[in-house]
Write a structure and sequence with these properties.
By secondary structure, the protein is of the alpha/beta class. It has two domains: 217 residues, Vaccinia Virus protein VP39 (Rossmann fold), CATH 3.40.50; 76 residues, rRNA adenine dimethylase, C-terminal domain (Helicase, Ruva Protein, domain 3). Strands 4-3-2-5-6-9-7 form a seven-stranded mixed beta sheet, sandwiched between helices. The protein has a two-stranded antiparallel sheet with strand order 1-8. Helix 5 packs across helix 7, helix 8 crosses helix 11 and helix 10 crosses helix 11. The longest helix has 17 residues. The C terminus is likely disordered. S-adenosylmethionine binds next to strand 1, helix 3 and strand 3. The site of S-adenosylmethionine has 22 residues, from strand 1, helix 3 and strand 3.
């Protein structure tokens, strides 16, 4: 018989999440991407994916009625920081905070995760050096689909500057995404899912696709499945250039994903010099111009970004060139519809 693992912290009896939802009349709001996980086994699986969180500071995004929060608290973290936009959940989260009073500190923040400075709620004594093992801080969340891709891009940028939760070291994340987005984040070279999100994530993090959760496990049921992903910041990020520059280079190269990658790279430069500059950039980076975007490795993208940076040092007038800006005469042909990379924000539900 398999040994039953005793969790470090027991809570007094609490109503089930289903009862909490009924008790507090917490009808799911579509505009806040509310899809609740009811199944304790799946909830525990997400929290287990974060590894050992005992004595850690755990920030949970969108706790909702608190299913994942309970599982986190059972593992005896030092502190839990909950960021929830919908104030209707506060009473049920306070119930949990009371249940673990004196054992786990719980901060409940009613607000938008995109506008919340998480670092403010993390005690300074957890700080580690970037090259040390990750600090005892974890970001966990069954993310609202409506903000998940915006949030991960924002967090990658903060990570690249070692700001916010990354001012404490290489803070790890365990997050859910629409399955298709999770697959893109983890997509390797030659994978048909590979896109700019793959390269952006993998340039700064080790991305692990952990497992799927079927849409049927959520209430209400979304019409997509979900992927659970862990991200651990790299000790040595693959790219050295500033985030916005890297984002621009990678976006333009993936803009025409079915064509030779140099076609997209050309759009980094004004029409008159486009072919010459892109070729020069590829030569400096030692990349074959006839590779397609999904055939370019992360380290090769890093070399393209270095070459682009060198070019704009020499020709600063190209730095703010924007291919997408409205043109008054002779408009460039836009990339073919079918070639356009679907934008990061995929409306899932
Ligand atoms: N954690 C709960 C669970 O797994 O059952 C709920 C997850 S539900 C997919 C997403 C949660 O994020 C909801 O509680 C929603 O109110 C909250 N939310 C939506 N947008 C948010 C935002 N911008 N900032 C913080 N929370 C947000």
């Amino acid at each position: 018989m398999a040994a039953v693992k005793v969790l470090p912290l027991r809570l007094p009896p609490l109503p089930s999440i289903k009862d909490v939802i009924r008790l507090y009349k917490l009808r799911a709001l579509r505009e806040l991407s509310q899809n609740f996980l009811m199944e304790p086994r799946l909830i525990d699986k997400i929290v287990r994916a974060a590894g050992d969180i005992q004595n850690h500071v755990v920030c949970e995004v969108g706790p909702g009625p608190g299913g994942i929060t309970r599982s986190i608290i059972h593992r005896a973290p030092r502190k839990v920081v909950l960021i929830e936009k919908d104030p209707r959940f506060v009473p049920s989260l306070e119930l949990l905070a009371d249940a673990c009073k004196g054992k786990v500190d719980v901060d409940i923040i009613t607000g938008d995760v995109l506008k919340t400075d998480l670092a403010h709620f993390i005690p300074s004594d957890v700080k580690t050096d970037w090259h040390d093992p990750p600090p005892p801080v974890n970001l966990i969340g069954n993310l609202p689909f409506s903000v998940s891709t915006i949030l991960i891009i924002r967090w990658l940028e903060m990570m690249s500057r070692r700001e916010g939760p990354w001012s404490f070291g290489r803070t790890r994340m365990t997050l859910t995404f629409q399955k298709e987005v999770a697959e893109r984040m983890a997509a390797q070279l030659m994978d048909k899912q590979r896109c700019r999100l793959s390269v952006m994530c993998q340039s700064w993090c080790t991305v692990n696709y952990k497992f799927d959760i079927p849409g049927s496990a959520f209430v209400p049921k979304p019409n997509v499945d979900v992927g659970v992903v862990t991200l651990t910041p790299l000790k040595y990020p693959l790219v050295k250039q500033p985030f916005k520059m890297v984002e621009k280079v990678i976006r333009q190269i993936f803009n025409m994903r079915q064509k030779y990658s140099i076609r997209g790279a050309q759009t980094l430069f004004p029409e008159e010099v486009r072919e010459e500059m892109a070729l020069r950039m590829y030569k400096m980076a030692d990349i074959d111009p006839i590779t397609r975007p999904f055939q370019i490795a992360n380290t090769e993208f890093a070399r393209i970004c270095d070459a682009y940076s060198e070019i704009i040092k020499k020709y600063p007038e190209f730095e703010h060139y924007d291919y997408r800006a409205p043109k008054n005469k002779n408009p460039d042909p836009q990339p073919e519809e079918a070639d356009m990379e679907t934008d990061f924000v995929v409306n899932k539900m």
